[in-house]
Automatic annotation (TrEMBL):
Entry's transmembrane regions: 12-33
Keyword field: Membrane, Methylation, Transmembrane, Transmembrane helix
NCBIfam families attached to this UniProt entry: IV_pilin_GFxxxE
Organism expressing this protein natively: Geobacter benzoatilyticus
Organism superkingdom: Bacteria
Name under which the protein is recorded: Type II secretion system protein
Length: 162
């Protein structure tokens, strides 16, 4: 008598269930890891944007002081009136300078407070007269910027305190 040999191609129900369970366990590990990676990338972008704006403000102040060296200027701090002044440029009222000096190509975007399409980036502003942790701006000049996000960083600090 001959034996009938059956080839079994495919997966049994148990093998399929085990595969789905293993994939589910892997997904629960990968999703939080990828979310953390996205958050970390945004934090790096925020630090870079803050550094870029603050450096431009410092360069503006340095150029202002250089242009007004030896001159007495009352009620002038030497800081830009708005962030847009860093993009538009200025000649500091000097007759010897024929072109405006620009300090930023564009105002960087806060990755945790992205503007709607077509709108300008929004940052919290502090003037020279404001307290270091002030959240109100007196519209006199721009001494510092901060994020308007209420979120917490990976290290537990608030983005607005950076």
């Amino acid at each position: 008598m001959g034996r009938i040999v059956r080839n079994q191609f495919g997966l049994s129900f148990i093998e399929l269930v085990i595969t789905v369970v293993i994939l589910g366990i892997l997904a629960t590990v990968v999703v939080p890891f990828s979310q953390m990676t996205v958050k970390r990338t945004k934090e790096i972008e925020l630090r870079r944007s803050l550094r870029e704006i603050r450096t431009a403000i410092d360069e503006y102040k340095k150029a202002y002081d250089e242009a007004h060296k030896g001159k007495q200027v009352l009620n002038e701090t030497g800081y830009p009136e708005t962030l847009e002044a860093l993009v538009e440029g200025t000649d500091f009222g000097s007759e010897a300078v024929t072109t405006k000096k620009k300090f930023l190509r564009r105002i960087p975007v806060d990755p945790f407070n992205r503007p709607a399409s077509g709108e300008k980036p929004e940052w919290g502003l502090r003037s020279y007269k404001d307290e270091p942790d002030s959240t109100t701006w007196d519209n006199s000049d721009v001494y510092d910027v901060y994020s308007l996000s209420e979120g917490k960083a990976i290290d537990g600090t608030l983005y607005k305190d950076w």
